[in-house]
Amino acid sequence: MQHANPPAVTEPALDAQTRERLGRQLQALYDPVLDEALDPRLAALIRQLETDRRETDSH
User: Fold this and answer.
1) What is the pTM of this model?
2) What's the pLDDT at 3?
């Protein structure tokens, strides 16, 4: 059985100007999401996970 060779390292397919424009568009798309309130159930789960991790780390 032959193993596939790893893909060769190549230059970026998008030029710098296109990457910058894409970055700005993605940031504009996702910035409003950062301002949204976190679902209270998710916030409670995150707090519990942090508590559990602290307890595990202290043992």
Assistant:
1) 0.47
2) 66
